[in-house]
Design a protein that fits this description.
Blueprint (H helix, E strand, L loop, with lengths): L25 E2 L1 H9 L4 E7 L5 H7 L5 E2 L5 E6 L1 H8 L4 E6 L4 E2 L12 H6 L7 E6 L15 E10 L6 E5 L11 H10 L23 E6 L6 H13 L1 H4 L1 E6 L1 E2 L11 H11 L3 E5 L20 E6 L23 E4 L3 E4 L20 H4 E4 L2 H18 L5 H10 L8 H4 L6 H8 L6 H5 L12 E3 L7 E3 L2 E5 L7 E5 L5 E17 L5 E7 L2 E8 L10 E7 L6 E8 L4 E13 L5 E12 L2 E2 L4 E8 L3 E10 L4 E7 L5 E5 L6 E6 L4 E12 L2 E12 L2
Parallel strand pairs: 1-5, 7-10, 7-11, 8-10, 11-13, 13-14, 14-15
Antiparallel strand pairs: 2-4, 2-5, 3-4, 6-12, 8-9, 16-17, 18-27, 19-22, 20-21, 21-27, 22-25, 22-26, 22-27, 23-24, 23-26, 28-36, 29-35, 30-35, 31-34, 31-36, 32-33, 32-35
Helix pairs in contact: 5-10, 6-8, 10-13, 11-13
């Protein structure tokens, strides 16, 4: 699928503590309101720029805390004074209130199916694991048996009120859904085996889930779900992703309906990390319809699948939340069955008491199944469909899975901000998924559709904050971002940039099927090489090729992109963060030499020109040109006598580019491969840092 690049400039508003002139950290809107009227203590989620900075900062302020394993976040109960101290600390990025969340329910009754691909294609979610972050899972239910369907069941325990705080993930819990029943119904919608309805005369395993052979990880946050418990659930899933091969995490809860997308919200940070790690993340749209602008604030994060609820007649359920017409983020992605959904029942729970199935032919169903409605029910259905797509094509990326579900949706007579792409069509989605070339490998290298702030910051090659070293000129190409890209004539030309962020995507125009290479340095350290290649590129068919360099670390970075081959075309970069002004200034100092190469064959005659390169000299570029029929070669020798750059082709002029790593006396060397009496000139420049 073709990526659509957009430019996005909307930034979340930074709030500061009441009575405080300035703060290094962003303060969440609910916490800001609490600070105006409450004296504390305040239960909060604190985000840091780096994991290793958390303990020194908090212990230095004598603050008890509860830390996440995989993300630089902690839960803490703070006084106002402690909050002010943390907000001003340079290693703290944001502080948000640990508010209560809600599970999304809407009572009704009846049944829906979704078994076509199971019965006709034998696609049932085999080999796929779904984490259910919810109130818990009753794995004593015959449809959700522990060790079979539910391969791990975790009760999440976290308590900020204890000295020092504590958290625990109690694995092997038979029933982690003892009070709500919400998570048990959700789990059955994804992957219930239907064992309790195995002998139904209408269809074997009549009440099974959409992906009955998928496996489940129950993450039981209890009935009193808060941001901290939700974060702990994400933390467990990310930390144990490889251990359990977790592919999908489904979330039928939320809060803050109608709020704007806030990439700094801790839940959005956590869902992005799961997405970036290769998990499909689904979220319920919420049940605040039919009013507009009522979508769950966590469902509108662009990297998650935002699920609206449909009726048995494939209309939009009245209770399903709506977005805002024309808004970039405030719209569902897909509508799925969410009204009158029969699934697994957790007896002796609040939700389990609602809508028990009364079937005269099968009175035993009363104890095992119940029927309820809500976007909570639609969301796990989509998670189960994602499992089906991964069964038929395990190499699909999360971006591809969402796009396939949307591309194959059936149209509905509603606006996109109400139903998204339309009503989910499982059969069409499975068929398309089986034919698409998977892009998971590229995704896992960091080439994701979405950045942590939503859109990547798109930087054109003409941006004045980029510095080009070496011989560059603009060349036209219809495939380039603005129909033009920068062409480097010689190898070792480079682009310099300063970015704030941990990921950069570099874009190139390829005009033939030859292989070229680049090296990227961050803060003077090589972070890797990449091959730039397109099998189908030609002079008449240019191709745009992108490569991503990930895990650069948080904060500011000076990036150097070195072209290891000549004739490369650079078409700008995308930053998961922002491009900033280069913090140094440079000056270019020209030099020139001239001479005449006498009669020479196979480099018998050699001319040498010494150059002194100092501590602040960054790079050297030079061209060798001559006026008669000859073949001269060009070399640069370092102070130790090693050849560190060369140009020995049949071209006139020859050119070389070199990045200075140590000062000293270097030597430009001209040799006569074929020469009679050949006048030549050397023109070059030394780039030096001036501050």
């Amino acid at each position: 699928m073709k990526r659509t690049h957009k430019t996005f400039s909307a930034i979340a508003v930074s709030l500061v503590l009441s009575g405080q002139a300035a703060a290094a950290a962003m303060i969440g809107p609910k916490l800001n309101e609490q600070l105006k009227s409450n004296t504390g203590p305040f239960k909060v989620i604190v985000s840091f720029d780096e994991h290793q900075k958390m303990a020194p900062v908090l212990e230095g302020l004598n603050i008890p805390y509860l830390a996440l394993q995989t993300m630089p976040m902690v839960g803490a109960a703070l006084t106002k004074e402690q909050l002010n101290s943390l907000a001003a600390h340079p290693n703290v990025t944001s502080i948000y209130a640990d508010t209560t969340l809600e599970y999304y329910n809407y009572n009704s009754g009846e049944i829906t199916g979704g078994h076509f691909v199971q019965d006709n294609y034998n696609v049932t979610g085999k080999g796929v694991t779904v984490a259910v972050l919810d109130s818990g899972v009753d794995s004593t239910h015959p449809d959700l048996t522990y060790g079979d369907t539910t391969i791990e069941n975790v009760k999440i325990v976290g308590d900020l009120d204890l000295a020092g705080g504590r958290n625990a993930f109690i694995e092997g819990t038979p029933n982690s859904d003892t009070s709500s029943g919400h998570g048990t119904h959700v789990a059955g919608t994804v992957a219930g085996s239907g064992a309790a309805s195995a002998n139904d005369e209408r269809r074997a395993n009549y009440h099974d889930g959409i992906a009955p052979d998928a496996t489940l990880i129950g993450l039981g946050a209890g009935e009193g779900l808060s941001i901290l418990y939700a974060l702990l659930g994400f933390d467990y899933a990310i930390a144990n992703q490889e251990r359990f091969d977790i592919d999908i995490i489904t979330n039928s809860w939320g809060g803050g309906d109608g709020a704007e997308f806030d990439p700094n919200n801790p839940i959005n940070k956590a869902s992005f990390q799961a997405y970036k790690n290769g998990m499909v993340v689904t979220f319920a749209a919420s049940n605040s319809g039919p009013d507009e602008d009522t979508l769950n604030q966590y469902a509108i994060a662009p990297w998650v699948i935002n699920v609206a609820a449909g009726t048995p007649t494939r209309d939009l359920a009245d209770f399903s939340s709506r977005g805002v017409a024309g808004h970039q983020y405030k719209l569902p992605d897909i509508t799925a069955p969410g009204e009158s959904i029969t699934s697994t029942r957790a007896v002796n729970t609040a939700l389990g008491a609602l809508g028990p199935v009364t079937d005269p032919a099968h009175p035993e169903y009363y104890a095992y199944y119940h029927t309820i409605s809500g976007t909570s029910m639609a969301t796990p259905f989509v998670a189960g469909v994602a499992a089906l797509l991964l069964e038929v094509n395990p190499q699909l990326s999360p971006d591809q899975i969402e796009q396939i579900i949307k591309d194959t949706a059936d149209p509905m007579d509603y606006a996109p901000h109400e139903v998204g792409a339309g009503h989910i069509n499982v059969k069409a989605a499975v068929e398309l998924a089986s034919t698409v070339a998977g892009e998971r490998a590229e995704f896992m290298k960091g080439d994701t559709l979405w950045a942590r702030s939503g859109e990547w910051e798109e930087v054109d090659d003409a941006n004045g904050k980029l510095l080009f070293e070496g011989k560059w000129r603009a060349r036209d190409s219809e495939q380039a971002l603005n129909d033009s890209a920068m062409h480097s004539k010689y190898a070792n030309a480079a682009v310099l940039a300063s970015i704030r962020g941990d990921r950069v995507r570099l874009n190139f125009i390829v005009k033939d099927n030859r292989t070229s290479s680049i090296e990227v340095l961050s803060d003077g350290r090589s972070v890797g090489y990449a091959t730039i290649y397109s099998e189908t590129a030609s002079k008449s068919n240019h191709e745009r090729v992108s490569v991503v360099f990930d895990d650069l670390g948080s904060g500011l970075h000076d990036i150097q992109i070195r072209m290891l081959d000549k004739n490369m075309m650079f078409d700008g970069l995308d930053v998961d963060g922002s491009l900033v002004d280069i913090g140094v200034t440079f000056e270019k100092n020209p030099f020139s030499f001239s001479g005449t190469m006498g009669a020479s064959a196979e480099n018998i005659e050699v001319h040498e020109y010494p150059l002194e390169l100092g501590e602040k000299d960054v790079s050297l570029s030079a061209t060798l040109a001559w006026s008669s029929v000859a073949d001269l070669d060009f070399y640069l020798i370092d102070p130790a006598g090693n050849t560190v750059a060369s140009s020995a082709s049949l071209e006139n002029p020859e050119g070389l580019q070199f990045w200075v790593e140590q000062p000293g006396t270097y030597t430009l060397q001209v040799t006569g491969y074929i020469s009679a009496a050949t006048p030549y000139t050397i023109d070059g420049e030394i780039t030096s840092q001036t501050n």
